[in-house]
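Worked example 2:
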Amino acid sequence: MRLNKLVKSIAVALPLMAMAACSSNDTTEAEAELAANQAAQQAQAEQQAAEAAAAAEVARLEQIKQEEQDKLQTSNTIYFDFDTSKLDSSVTDILNMHATFLVSNANARVVIEGHADERGTPEYNIALGERRAQAVQKYLENSGVLSSQIETVSYGEEKPAISDRTEGAFAKNRRAVLVY
């Protein structure tokens, strides 16, 4: 009888132990899957936060670049004396500012437009405008700007800033303009 009781006890205990073992495995697997999902969600959230931070940094740098470019646009004209393409020492600060911008922004491009007043022949004024644009180009290249970033064009007397026939108007028309 004792043996019978023992067999009955084992017969009852074994299925209970099996059920307990199976239920603990299901719980462990579910907990592991939940933890893996949480880790994946956290990694995805961290990646999204990093991407957002990178995008914000790019936007900030673009804004700074745009502000610098806007500042350069307000001081983009170099004036020359009558019948010369020699740069005056008073324009070095403006040209240095442009050179610094172009060196730090290798993908930026500038067109230097050379102009002359209406005195002289059209051919002479085209050549003078070209020499003025090239003088500015040479200064920028000597300051470290790549020649591939610079293009020159001469308009001679064709695009005056002021149409009057006064000495003040002539002085405003003798110029080189940096256009980004």
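The chain has four helices and four strands. The helical segments are 2-74, 92-104, 122-142, 167-173.
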